[in-house]
């Protein structure tokens, strides 16, 4: 099986960052932007780069867009162009279409035309930063749905040398520790006897309200 291929349309900060990260992960990425200056700046950093109007069907067809496994519409400033580009990617047969939305209305429009995944980078980053500001031990926050989240939290001093059973997160908070990351590596689905140490990272999954309770109370557990 060949390397999965992505096409990123719109090489602003979001599109560039996403494309470069995919390349770092070992995937092939074509970057597309209507600005020749932007495409020249990309240079050899992308697998391929092309100057093209994302609303020109024949131009996209000539780039072999239909052969890509995933098309990402990273255009955020022009809602109309974003929607038209997403429609063309769908019509040209791209297997999965992902698009950036700048407003709720924009997101709804993208969903209506059949976009497989709508991303709200500014909103999602705002949520992450807010949680990190109020919870110093919180490293990352991923909202899975309106009801469930996954968080990465640094093990606080009060839990140093405690076991998963000592924390008793499932019955006490309604949350589950799904992984532990230590200097030795990552333990998936740790057992009740697995021991935590200050500075390790807990990956916790659960309902949003229980996650918030966990964030508030876990650092106050008495030693």
TrEMBL record:
GO terms for biological process: potassium ion transport. Residues 136-220 form the RCK C-terminal domain. It comes from the Bacteria. Gene3D superfamilies: NAD(P)-binding Rossmann-like Domain (3.40.50.720), Regulator of K+ conductance, C-terminal domain (3.30.70.1450). It holds the Pfam family TrkA_N. InterPro entries: NAD(P)-bd_dom_sf, RCK_C, RCK_C_sf, RCK_N, Trk_Ktr_HKT_K-transport. Residues 3-119 form the RCK N-terminal domain. Signal peptide: none annotated. GO terms for molecular function: monoatomic cation transmembrane transporter activity. PANTHER family: KTR SYSTEM POTASSIUM UPTAKE PROTEIN C, POTASSIUM CHANNEL PROTEIN 2-RELATED-RELATED. This is TrkA family potassium uptake protein. It comes from Saccharibacillus brassicae.
